[in-house]
Specification:
This protein is mostly helical. Helix content is 57%, strand content 0%.
Length: 81
């Protein structure tokens, strides 16, 4: 989780989405934790983020859903865990 938070925050800083590293780190940490735990909280409009942030958050949605049963997509049949 720390790797994704750091890479997203650095990307937000490099793309000039936020003026300081601390601000980018705060928003990316909250978003990564919210997405991976499938709580659904959001403090920012992700549409304004660079494309890399979109892909990371999409990936983390699947990782969080597979790890935590309460947010997982339910499937019926064999091969689903």
């Amino acid at each position: 989780m720390g790797f994704f938070t750091l890479t997203v925050s650095l990307n937000l800083l490099i793309q000039n989405t936020y003026p300081t590293l601390l601000l980018a780190l705060r928003h990316s940490l909250f978003s990564v934790v919210s997405i991976i735990t499938t709580t659904g909280f959001a403090t920012e409009d992700f549409e304004k983020w660079p494309t890399y942030g979109h892909y990371v958050l999409l990936f983390l949605m699947f990782v969080g859903a597979a790890r935590l049963n309460r947010g997982a997509l339910k499937c019926v049949g064999y091969g689903c865990s």
